Amino acid sequence: MQDEQNTLHAAFTAHQRGDYALAEEQYKAILEINKQSIAALTNYGVLLAQLKRSAKARAHFEAALKITPNDVGLLNNLGRLTLDQGDIEAAEKLFRKAFARNKTDVTTLGHIGLIKSCLSDLADAEKWYRRALEIDESADWVSYNLSVNLLAQGRFDEGWPLHEARFSKRWDARPVNAPELPFPPWRGENLVGKSILVIGEQGLGDEIQTVRYAASLAAAGASKVTWACKPTLVSLFASIGEVDFLPLSPGMSVNRHDYWVLSMSLPYRFHTAVSTIPETVNPYLRAPTIRTGVIPQSDTLLKIGLVWKGSKQLKNDINRSASLVDFKLLLELSSIKAVHFFSLQKGEGESDAREADGRGELVDLSGELHDFANTAALINQLDLIITVDTAVAHLAGALGKPVWIMLPHFGTDWRWMTKSETSALYPSARLFRQPRPGRDWSSVIAQMRRELISRPGA
Predict the structure, then answer these.
(1) 3-state secondary structure string across 282-305
(2) What is the 3-state secondary structure (H, E, C) of 373-437?
């Protein structure tokens, strides 16, 4: 028994420091001796879930639940895994079962709130989040989820302060790490004559969305604005004046500034409301004038760019991404209307684009998409962009290009708000929402097809 406890401790320690291979080896060793070790089954299940080996993780959680069917922690773990796999109904049942056994468990309360929020039942979700925070106000992951809920409702004054929880050091799984710099963070102090370093964060779309605040910082009187962004964005952002853009990299060296700020904190520090989203320049990004013979110059042909997949790194990608097969009804239009389709797909989905190009269904532009400046130049040569919720949606909106954005019913990102067909962030955007939960894009595609068919000149 003592040997099992020692091995379990060693496995957990290895797990915590990120030595997953050693942790797995030791969890297996315990289970070979004791197949009913709840601790080994549970922690090995957590490890397997982290490694995206969902089927095996589920098997370990379920094996543990057979031994202790009322264990709230296990029900929560299996519920989270089930939610990540996209089975919303089953996940909610597991969390409800956990809630029936413990009505004050913050993990349970927060996840029921998350499910309600992802189903766009924002009022009910808010109640669950606030109930969890009444029990533990230090639960920063709940504060962050509540902030997203409030922002989706347009309650920016309440949501932005809570959004700062995303980089709280009390939250081990925080999505953002604040930098360790020898100068202070900017909390809204007067910037006249001061220098400020902006650090881009999270996804490419987040950075494209927030770079509009570069003009706001300059207008606030900052003597120097330096913006560290993802390398693929530097050449695109270079069109913005009065700002120095640097490629962001781990451990990069930067000169001392008076302040630093994370890019997604800028809406908070500028007291942004829905009605005051900066539109000093609209569009606020400009594309380089790069021409390619791949896209014909024609006044009679409707040229449409397509993106159907995002990065699998996003937790809700299983719901927000589509497949090229889903676009079949649109692609058929090229044979009956003056419509031509072009793929702006990069990474996941490129092989599908190449195959479709070989069949003459669209033109694959992936070989031209070297960075976001190239992508912007190609977008400028198209008439319309149709995309799922990816960075290309933000890029097209920032360029002022007409863009139709396909939104999932489950887990719609907060920035697209609820119900509206238009976007406060991007006046050129049109939002097409799934009418019900599930990964069925047929009704969205059918609506877009009808509108393209009735479009004058198409």
Answers:
(1) CCCCCCCCCCCCCCCCCCCCEEEE
(2) HHHHHHHHCCCEEEEECCHHHHHHHHCCCCEEEEECCCCCCHHHCCCCCECCCCCCEEEEECCCC
Q: Give residue 130's pLDDT.
A: 98
Instruction: Say how far residue 308 (Cα) sits from the centre of its chain.
Output: 15
Residue type for 143, please? S
CATH 3.40.50.2000 for domain 302-454: yes
The candidate with the shortest Cα–Cα distance to 358, out of 390, 324, 330, 307, is 324
CATH topology of domain 2-167: 1.25.40
For residue 33, the SS3 value is: helix
Residue with token string 């809630």 = 99
Sheet holding 403-407, edge to edge: 363-364, 339-343, 302-307, 384-388, 403-407, 429-433
Give the H/E segment covering residue 352.
helix 350-358
Positions in the chain short of pLDDT 70: 1-2, 279-281, 291-293, 456-458
Predicted local confidence at residue 2, as pLDDT: 58
**Bridge partners for 407 per DSSP:** 433
Structure tokens at 241: 């004046």
- To the nearest 10 degrees (0 to 180), the angle between helices 106-118 and 88-101 is 150
pLDDT of amino acid 317:
87
The CA distance from 245 to 231, in Å, is: 9
pLDDT at res. 439: 77
Q: Which amino acid is at 411?
A: G
Amino acid, single-letter form, for residue 258: D
